[in-house]
Amino acid sequence: MTVEEQTPDTQAEQSATLVVGSIFSAGTLNVGRVLAMATAAAPPNSADPVDVVLAERLAVERPDIPAVTVGEEDVDPARIDRRYSLTRVRDLQRPAEKGYRDVVIMRGDLEAVLGQVKISREDRSVVVRNADLSSRRGFRPLAVASAIVGEGDKVEDFKLQGFIELRPASAGDFANDVAASPDSWARVNLWSSSLRWQHWANVFAVVILSLTGYYIMDPFFGASASADAQEANGYLMGWVRSIHFTTAFVWLMIALTRVVSAFTSRDRYLRWPTLWPLKSKQDVKYLGQVLGHYAFLRDEPPLYMAHNPLQQLGYTGMYVAGVFQMITGFALYGMAHKNSSWIWGLVSSPVDWFGIQPVRFFHALMMFLIWMFVIMHIYLSVRSDSLERHSGISSMINGGVWMRRGSKPVDAPKIG
C-alpha cells in the first residue's frame, strides 16, 4: 500500500502520526516549492494524514507561500492500478514565470511517477539513489511531478519536481514499515537451512569451547589448597576437559560440512569464491566505500544482498582462525596419545616444534581474538539492521531478507 492508496480506516489510525523527513528537489523548484506543490494536490478539506502533515509542515516552514484550494472535480485520486493521484490546480502562479497557468500535479509512488515523467537517465539515477537512501532510513518517498495545461486543454509532458520523505512517527521497527507499504518490499530467500544450522551450531560450539577452555586455563571456581579439595577439583576438571574435547570433535565435524558445501553446494553464496571477494578493482572500490560507511564517513554504503566485501573478508579470517585453533587444540590433545598411533604423533607435531607453553598461549590467544570478532559481528549486525533495514539478523533464523523493490544489489539481480 502506498501513501496514495490508504483506506479511510488506515488514514484514521495514522492521523497525526506521520513524520515528514527531508525534501529532495529534482527540478528547478526549491524544496519549499516542492512541498507547496505536494500540498496543493490535496482534495479540499482533506483529512488524509498525508495531506494534513504536509499542510502543517508548509505552514511552519513556508508561511509566505499561500495555501491553494482545488475543487472536488479537479482531483482524480490514486487507484490500485495507478499508484498516483492527478490534481488540476487552476491559475497557479509558477516561479520565474509571468502570469498564471493551469497545472496538473501528479503525486504518489516514486516508481509509478517515474514511469510517467520525462527525465534523463542521469537525473533518474540521482533520484533513485537518493530515494533508496531514504528507504533505508525508514522513509517512503512521496513523488511530486507537474505538467502545464496548454492550449486546447492539452496537458504537456510531466516533469519530476522531487519527492518528500514520509514515515509513521511510531514506526521505529522494520515490521511496521513493511506492513504499511508491502508492495514496496520483496522478501528474498537467501540463506539455506544447512548454512543456518552450521551458523548456530558454530555459536553453540564456540561458547562451550570458550567456557570450558577458559576453565582449563584458569580454574576460577572449585579450587582449594587442601589435598581433598584438589582431588575433588580434579574430578571436576576431568568433566570439563571431557566436555571440551567432545565439543572440539563436534566443531571439527561442523567445519568439514562447511568445506564440503563450499565445493558442492548449488547456492552461490556458499561456494568457495565468496571466501575472497576482492576479484577486481571494482571490488576494492566497494570495500573502501563500506569501510567509509562503517567509519561514519559515508551515509550510503554499496547495497549487497548477502555479505559485503568487509564481512566476507571477516568471515574468511574467522575460518583461518578456526583452522589454527583446531590445529593447536588437537596438538595439545594429541600429546597424551602420541605414542599410541603415528596419526596422533603427527597431530601433536606443533608441540614438538614450538614447545607446549607457546602452543597453549597461542591457543588461548586465538580464543580471545575469536571473541573480539564475535562482539564486532553482533554490533555490526545490529547496526546494519538498524540503518539498512534488511532484516539481516532474523534472516539467520528464517533464511529470508527484505529488499526494496527496484533496488539493484551489487551481488544480485535487480529486485523486482
Structure description:
- By secondary structure, this protein is an alpha+beta fold.
- It folds into two domains: 8-180, Calcium-transporting ATPase, cytoplasmic domain N (3-Layer(aba) Sandwich), CATH 3.40.1110; 193-404, Fumarate Reductase Cytochrome B subunit, CATH 1.20.950.
- Helix content is 51%, strand content 14%.
- The protein has helices spanning 8-14, 31-40, 49-61, 110-114, 121-136, 174-180, 193-217, 227-264, 281-294, 309-334, 342-347, 349-354, 356-388, 392-398; strands at residues 18-25, 75-76, 84-92, 101-109, 140-148, 159-168, 185-189, 400-404.
- The strands form two sheets. A six-stranded antiparallel beta sheet has the order 1-6-5-4-3-2. It has a two-stranded antiparallel ribbon with strand order 7-8.
- A hairpin with an 8-residue loop joins strand 3 (84-92) and strand 4.
- Helix 2 packs antiparallel against helix 3, helix 7 (193-217) packs antiparallel against helix 8 and helix 10 runs antiparallel to helix 13.
- The radius of gyration is 30 Å and the shape is elongated.
- The two termini are 16 Å apart.
